[in-house]
Write a structure and sequence with these properties.
Helix content: 10-25%
Radius of gyration: 22 Å
Strand order of the largest sheet: 1-2-3-4-5
Largest sheet: 5 strands, antiparallel
Number of strands: 23
Strand content: 25-35%
Structural class: alpha+beta
Distance between the termini: 40 Å
Number of domains: 3
Length: 347
């Protein structure tokens, strides 16, 4: 037998075994995009290594595609770029299609955080959240001086935002652009050197709640065309420890926890992200924000989706999220949470 069961289970925890035409086949979920998920549509021949999806027709050599130890399964996934689509169907306009690297479009003209003035708003924003100069270097954090993408008059561009590159298998697969803001004492938003600080007005919504006039503008812009559902920030560092990974929501949370952490880019974690986590770590610890209700049905479904690995969740005491807590305190609470649950030593 060319491919044994242990190899398959490591990459495809959901695998089923089927006897077909005198040989064993492993039936798994297809890793290409499927509107219905591609569940149990891909068959792998244990004798030849050939695989084929009976839904989308994807086929190839499983030894090269899935079981080569020098690569990860998502390395072959194509990143669909918006500039391959007619502009009339795009949700944004680009001033200049400039490639950053690895075929990924650049968010704009970039500067390394270390090249900015120590009193720059972006530098102050990161320092106030405990992100050090060494963190900025390790995570290749950039600052966008002039955004290339104009999303719409309400959303503006990526100008004045902090850029977090996302690497997987040593390739750039996308980026997220974080808005710089402050409350001092009124809320202000940094719109770059040309505009400076801008003060949103307070507005009353139809339900009576008071908010600011830019409440519809997202704090994060994601690289156009990026498969966010298949990406994890800091994956290449976190995978160096194959035992345990700490899962958080956003880039700042991830940086504060450190190299053993990955970020999912939002409150919802996708099936593809779960697959990546289960395929690469035997223990998964998820740190939830304070407001998450773990009694809701969706969270119970999330817990069930991690069947096959040791899954644990926690909330930080006295802090809303990891981004608001010191790294030492985060790991103190992680150790306290895991000491009776994990046999492996947390260092």
């Amino acid at each position: 037998m060319l491919i044994d069961k242990e190899q398959v289970i490591k990459q495809f925890p959901e695998a089923k075994i089927s006897n077909a035409s005198g040989h064993i086949e492993y039936v798994v979920h297809c890793r290409k995009f499927h509107k219905k998920g591609g569940k149990y549509k891909l068959s792998i021949n244990s004798e030849t290594g050939a695989f084929m999806c009976n839904d989308c027709g994807w086929k190839g050599n499983a030894l090269q595609e899935f079981f080569d130890e020098g690569s990860q399964f998502f390395a072959s996934m194509k990143i669909h770029r918006r500039y391959d689509v007619p502009e009339s169907t795009s949700s944004f306009r680009s001033y200049n299609h400039v490639e950053w690297r690895d075929g990924i479009p650049s968010p704009g003209k970039l500067k390394s955080i270390s090249c900015l003035d120590p009193k720059h708003p972006a530098v102050n924003y990161l320092r106030e959240r405990g992100v050090t100069d060494s963190d900025c270097h390790a995570y290749d954090i950039q600052y966008c001086t002039h955004g290339y993408y104009y999303f719409c008059s309400r959303l503006g561009t990526t100008s004045g935002r902090i850029i977090f590159p996302i690497y997987m298998s040593n390739k750039l697969v996308g980026w997220q652009a974080r808005q710089v803001d402050r409350n001092n004492p009124e809320r202000e938003v940094w719109h770059g050197e040309e505009v400076g600080w801008w003060k949103p007005k307070k507005v009353k919504l139809s339900d009576g709640k008071i908010t600011y006039s830019d409440y519809e503008v997202p704090k994060y812009y994601t690289c156009p065309g990026m498969h966010r559902s298949r990406s994890l920030l800091n994956f290449d560092y976190a995978i160096k420890d194959s035992d345990m990974v700490v899962v958080v929501e956003g880039p700042i949370d991830c940086i504060k926890v450190g190299e053993r952490s990955v970020a999912t880019f939002g409150k919802k974690i996708t099936k593809d992200q779960i697959r990546i986590l289960k395929s690469n770590w035997s223990k998964v610890l998820m740190i939830l924000d304070e407001e998450v209700d773990t009694n809701e049905p969706w969270f119970k479904e999330l817990e069930n989706s991690f069947e096959g690995v040791y899954f644990l969740w926690m909330k930080l005491s006295d802090f809303e999220d990891p981004g608001s807590a010191p790294r030492e305190e985060i790991w103190k609470q992680i150790k306290q949470k895991t000491k009776n649950d994990y046999s492996a030593k947390i260092s």
